[in-house]
Amino acid sequence: MKIAVIGTGYVGLVSGVCFSDFGHDVVCVDKDPSKIAKLEAGEVPIYEPGLEELMAKNVEAGRLTFTMNLAEAIDGADAVFIAVGTPTRRGDGHADLTYVMAVAEEIALAAKHYTVIVTKSTVPVGTNRQVKQVVRKANPDLDFDVASNPEFLREGAAIDDFMRPDRVVVGVQSERAGDIMNDVYRPLFLRDFPVVITDLESAEMIKYAANAFLATKITFINEIAALCERTGADIKQVSKGMGLDGRIGNKFLHAGPGYGGSCFPKDTKALARIGQEHAVPMQITEAVIKVNDEVKRRMVDKLLELCDDSFNGKTVAVLGVTFKPNTDDMRDAPSLTIIPALVGGGAKVRVVDPQGKHEGEALLPGVKWMDDPYKAARNADLVVVLTEWNEFRGLDLSQIAEHMVTPRMADLRNIYSNKDAKRAGFDSYVSIGRAPYEASADQED
Ligand code: UDX
């Protein structure tokens, strides 16, 4: 079958590459000539493990091509996927649908035969019906259907998530469109991955509800972590004890410096906005947005306390700036709140991140980028673990502590423990939701 994917951003590119790996003929379309040139040269503009190899394999097999020409790409396509961005609109928190609607109109004007227009971008409830109207208005004679097919892949694990999904959600209005979507995903259905067929609105709602729920789960555990710090409980033990309850589940219960990324911040804001619009305030989601901002700010206070209430003149080595490991994405990363506070307070900040420099350089002015955590920590006053890259999990902490001015560590991802810090000779070690370690207090014990 022939598929066109419009938009070669994160979701579009991963979907296009994976569809071609299913054996479909796929054309990926983008308006940005530099992106298309890169893709045609075999380069992936984003960092995603395994994507470049899978892309090369399918390009070589002749199943995957790239173009700027939308009309040519959709000619003969059984399904056209819209996978363009839906950023948060400035001012009102709404998802900006300008790109989605512009593409819908373009498809309508170029299409010559029946096609299913599928929205993969995360769009507010009701958008697919709007897409339908836009298409009908632009080309009243066109025979078409719309479908909603939200994507749940995680950055850094995108290919595996696409190929082995917990579920595929498809919102359709007609049997004909349902059959085509069934063919698109046949390789997954044959392997018994569950499919949830719904109406358009439910499919749209599932995506927002799922992301808001996950953001809530993280924020809940972050709030419990703050309380653990005051009460002497240990968040790791608490998370484990909670997560073993099958109704709760152990995933997304890792306390940290607050969620970030391209989806949770954007989708929680959009859901809150949709709620306001329908006079059903999403009070829990609104609280989550507020608390998550507070969590990020609380991290700054934590560091300040560790620096004897002043960053001025301190040298701080920050390990990790991306919003999570295995990505180069900096969108809404906690580092964007924490590092400017350090720099603004007069600290000299050194930064190490396996993939973050490219995007991070423009976003984090005034920091020094380094490649080696040991060198970054040399003569520093404080080491901060901000992203749990594997590279940072197995550091020789004694070697780090030995060459610091004052061996102090803030481990905002709980990848080490008080025991590790004590053994390595740190003066102080703070983490999330656990009692801090103080060498001086320890000796008194
Ligand atoms: C998320 C959803 O998981 C995915 O289904 C959706 O399609 C897009 O949004 P992603 O943004 O790639 O995916 O990242 P994810 O792994 O979900 O992490 C999001 C944020 O939450 C990160 O900042 C991460 O560090 C944080 N997080 C996650 C925690 O702080 N604790 C956790 O237990 C899990």
UniProtKB/TrEMBL annotation:
<dbReference type="InterPro" id="IPR036291">
    <property type="entry name" value="NAD(P)-bd_dom_sf"/>
</dbReference>
<dbReference type="InterPro" id="IPR014026">
    <property type="entry name" value="UDP-Glc/GDP-Man_DH_dimer"/>
</dbReference>
<dbReference type="InterPro" id="IPR036220">
    <property type="entry name" value="UDP-Glc/GDP-Man_DH_C_sf"/>
</dbReference>
<dbReference type="Pfam" id="PF03721">
    <property type="entry name" value="UDPG_MGDP_dh_N"/>
</dbReference>
<dbReference type="Pfam" id="PF03720">
    <property type="entry name" value="UDPG_MGDP_dh_C"/>
</dbReference>
<dbReference type="InterPro" id="IPR028357">
    <property type="entry name" value="UDPglc_DH_bac"/>
</dbReference>
<comment type="similarity">
    <text>Belongs to the UDP-glucose/GDP-mannose dehydrogenase family.</text>
</comment>
<keyword id="KW-0520">NAD</keyword>
<dbReference type="InterPro" id="IPR001732">
    <property type="entry name" value="UDP-Glc/GDP-Man_DH_N"/>
</dbReference>
<protein>
    <recommendedName>
        <fullName>UDP-glucose 6-dehydrogenase</fullName>
        <ecNumber>1.1.1.22</ecNumber>
    </recommendedName>
</protein>
<comment type="pathway">
    <text>Nucleotide-sugar biosynthesis; UDP-alpha-D-glucuronate biosynthesis; UDP-alpha-D-glucuronate from UDP-alpha-D-glucose: step 1/1.</text>
</comment>
<dbReference type="InterPro" id="IPR014027">
    <property type="entry name" value="UDP-Glc/GDP-Man_DH_C"/>
</dbReference>
<feature type="domain" description="UDP-glucose/GDP-mannose dehydrogenase C-terminal">
    <location>
        <begin position="317"/>
        <end position="418"/>
    </location>
</feature>
<keyword id="KW-0560">Oxidoreductase</keyword>
<dbReference type="InterPro" id="IPR017476">
    <property type="entry name" value="UDP-Glc/GDP-Man"/>
</dbReference>
<dbReference type="InterPro" id="IPR008927">
    <property type="entry name" value="6-PGluconate_DH-like_C_sf"/>
</dbReference>
<dbReference type="Pfam" id="PF00984">
    <property type="entry name" value="UDPG_MGDP_dh"/>
</dbReference>
